[in-house]
Amino acid sequence: MWTRVMRTGVGEKNVAESMQAIGETDPWTMLAILGLTVLTVVTRSFFLWSEEKMPIPAMVSAWLALRTRRGDGRGDRARNRDAKWRAHQHLAGRAFIRCGRRLAVVLYPRWRVGTIVCGMCVYLPLHLLMAW
Amino acid sequence: MSIWRDVKREATNPAFTEGVRDMLPVTPGIAAWGITTGVALANSGLSLVEASAMTLFVFAGSSQLAATPLIMSGAPLWVVWLTALCVNLRFAVFSAHVRPFFMRFPLLRRTVYAYLLTDTSYVVFIKRYPTVPETDAQRAHMESYWRALGFVTWVAWMGSSFLGIALSSVIPLTWGLSFAGILALMGISCSLVTTRLRALAATLSGTAAVMAFSMPMKLNILVAVGVAVAMSVLIEKSGRSAYAGQDALDVDAGDADRSGGEKRG
Q1: Facing B47 at nearest CB: one of A10, A60, A104
Q2: A13 with A60, same domain?
C-alpha cells in the first residue's frame, strides 16, 4: 500500500534540516490534509448548503435542547406541567441542576480566564511532579 | 483602498468590538490548545510544509491531533478520514443549530462563516444569540458579531499554532498545555448546562466517552454523542413534549402509563 515515507519531524531537526524538510513534502500526506480540509468545510456547513426547508435541523436542535428558553411559545399545558413538576420536584435532580447552574455562573461570566488559571494551577504540579 | 476603509469601519463597529470583547476571555484556552497542536504536529514527523498546510487549511485542532498519528503510522486514507469525520461530526450538529441564523446570507458567505464555526466561537455565539434575530439591524449586528468571533478565533489559533510549530523543539509536550484548552472548553460547556435535559445529556455523553475511551479511531466521541442524543430523544418522547429542556423530564399523569410502556418495550 502506498503510504507516507517514515522520517523524523521538524521538531527533532536543526534549522538546516528543517529547511531541507520543505523538499520532503509527501504527496500522500498532502492528499490526506486536503481530505481533512474538505471534511472540516463539509461538516461545519453541512446543514447550511441546502436552500430548501429542513425539518430535521429543527428537530435536532430541539432534541439536543440547544434552543430552550423558558416562556416562549409555551402553552397552558406546558405551564401546568411545569407547576406539577415543581410540586413533586426530584430533589436529586434539582440539586444537580443547581450545582450545574452555580458552576456555570461562577465559571463563565466572571472567571472565564480564572477557570484556565485555577485549573492549570491544580493540574501542572500534579502533572509535572507526580507524573499524572 | 476601499477594502482598507471597509476593514476600518468593521473594526470600529460596536457589534464587532463586542464580539472581540466576548471572545477575549476564551482566547488563552484557544492559544494553549493551538500551541499544543503546533508542537504535536511538528514533533509527529510532518515536514514544515505539511504541518503548516494542515494548520492553515484544516483549522480543527481535535481532528488534526486525531489524524496526524494515523497519517504518520501509514494508516489507509479512509481510516484517517473516517477518524476525522467522527471527531468532526459535532460540527454538523452545530451547523444545524446555526442554520436559521445564517440562511439569510449568500451561499459562499455562509460557507465561509461556517468554516469559522469552532467549539468556542459557537458556544460564545449561542450565548449571545439564543434566538434568531428578526430585524435587519439585529441581523447586521449578528453578522458583525460573528465575524469578530471568527476573526479572534482564527488569529488566536493560527498565531498559537505556528508559534507551537516554531518552538516545537523548546516546548515539550509534557508540559500538558493542552489541558488549558480542555479547561477553557469545560468552562463554557458548564455554562450551557441550564436545563435538566442538558445536564442529563452532558452527564450521559461524558460517562459514555470515558467508558468507551479504549475504542479505536476516537469512536468514543461518536458513541458519546449517539448515547446522549438517543437517550435525550427517548426521554423527551416519553415526556411527549415538543419543547426539550425544563419540561422534558416531566411526565403528565395521563402520559405516565404510556411512556412507561414505551420504555419497557
Answers
A1: A10
A2: yes
